[in-house]
Amino acid sequence: MNKRRPLIDADGEVRELTAGDLARFKPAKDVLPPEVYSRLVAMNRLAGVRGPQKAPLKQPTTIRFDADVLEALKATGKGWQTRVNDAMREWVKAHPTG
């Protein structure tokens, strides 16, 4: 007998997923028909591949900020990392090496 709770209630609403629900999820390639999966991969929907970029990719790095500085940067809202990048670009131009 199946003791799992249905994902959809009698009203057709999806209930909140539990950790147990997520643990039972399977990769798309294991559950989709091969022709559907291959089409999605070809469209880069499941491949995790980014499309052509307008500019070179940015390099991931780690930088440590004081807590108050980081809080102030994040408080400026979405795009704060881009603004930090732009500010650093201006600083580098104003302080050439060599």
Q: What's the layout of helices and strands?
A:
Layout: H1 19-24, H2 28-31, H3 34-42, H4 67-75, H5 80-94
Can you tell me about this structure?
There is one protein chain. By secondary structure, the protein is mostly helical. It has two domains: 1-54, no CATH class; 58-98. 44% of the residues lie in helices and 0% in strands. The chain has helices at residues 19-24, 28-31, 34-42, 67-75, 80-94. It is elongated.
The biggest sheet amounts to: none
Strand content: under 5%
Number of domains: 2
- Helix and strand content put the structural class at mainly alpha
Report the uncertain regions: none
Strand count: 0
Question: How far do the termini sit from each other?
Answer: 74 Å
What would the average pLDDT be, to the nearest integer? 87
Proportion in helices: 40-55%
Task: Name the shape in a single word.
Answer: elongated
Rg, Cα atoms, Å: 23 Å
What is the count of helical runs?
5
The H-and-E topology, N to C, reads as HHHHH
